[in-house]
Amino acid sequence: MYIANIAGKIKQRVDGSLRDKTLRELLKGTSSTFVIRVVGFIIGYVFVIIISRIYGPKIVGAYTLCSTVLIIFSVVGRLGFDSSIVRFFAQNVIHNKWDVVHEIYLKILKVVIPWGLFLSVVLFFSSSLLADRFFHKPQLTPYFKLISVGVLPMTLRFINSESYRGFKMMKHYAYSQNVSYFLYASVLLTAVSIFYRNDFLPNLCFVTSLAILSVSSSVLILKKIKNHARSASRSINVSEMLRISTPMMLSTSLMLISGWINTVMLGIYGTEADVGLYSVIFKIGTFSAIVLNAVNSIAAPKFAEMHAVNDRKGLAKVAIQTSKINFWASLPVLAGTIIFRKYILQIFGEEFVVGADVLLFTMAGQFVNVFSGSVGTFLNMTGHQNVQRTVVLIATVVNIISCMIFIPKYGLMGSAICGMIFMCTWNIISLLYIKIKLGIQTYYFPFSKVKTAKLD
After folding, report:
1. What's the Cα-to-Cα distance from 257 to each of 277, 353, 413, rounded to whole Å?
2. CA 21 to CA 121: how far, in whole Å?
3. pTM greater than the 0.90 cutoff
């Protein structure tokens, strides 16, 4: 009888929560995005397995280095528009200003297309220098020249997928961001390799898949906009758009730099085996944040919408609702990873099990990341992108100092400790700023009552 009463109260509370339209939208967007993200992770690994089975580990290494270089160049190529376009679109769609959306998208394309082509030329002619002087692998030169063609498609892939998010087309967003290019590349590589094999094929298929995705997504977005917009606006200032997007680009760049610093310094003071083990541990930690990424996918346009209409109570409500969803959905993933960490590491080989204790530090950082809520997304979508940039800059400086202290002394363990410190620093500073300065709570304590002040 007692258990039945408790079950009834829980059901009543859940039913009451699900009547909330905003919560239902968040749950629906998060669940669909989460499933597609998982599929994307699987297909991404399938593509690497196909390369390794047909061409061997040497070509897997070439592909990995080329895709890393391509991502670096695309970060510069995006100029932060991939983050700001969510805010630009969401804030105008809610007011039915499709003519403004049309002009924003066209002007972004006019900036990033020539800029992306320029970066492609830079990468092409610097391929030899990059391969020889930086990686000390001159044999990579032709691979880098081939991958240089993909700078613009990779840039457009990010911008277009984030455009879907601005429209709250979450399934399109998740498919474009996580599944499509790996799926296309896997099918192309498998089909072509049946008749012809060449060491350059994996990179060629990857670039081709990006080109297909960038063109098809651009056509779809323009079609959607033109179905609503009667004419293009002329009121959008490109310099103003860059003023908003550039700090977002710098934040993304600093995030990437911090990860590279840990790996590079570990490579200097540790062994190649340490670097390989840290790479696997980092991938496991990234997977544990898959729920947070899914929540952020739908949270970003909601934050932008609420900010656009100056709905302060709504903004606070969405912040805590996303935090709750993220906490409870991530908890099983985090707990499972920690409890079964040795078995997970065994999947990659018995020699990786020695990193079980190291993984604990990575997971501690991920727990703080989950606990803090969507702090980075909140700041970027509510006009505080400069604050986000400064916070990440501070965390990067702290990370560099901690790397200089811990990695020479503790090696692999020190690198994981530094990663945890970086994750904790930027998350905690961000949530404190949002709470103290703006009066919004983004973090979640189970069973605690939330008190929020008004957003300035």
Report:
1. 19, 27, 19
2. 49
3. no
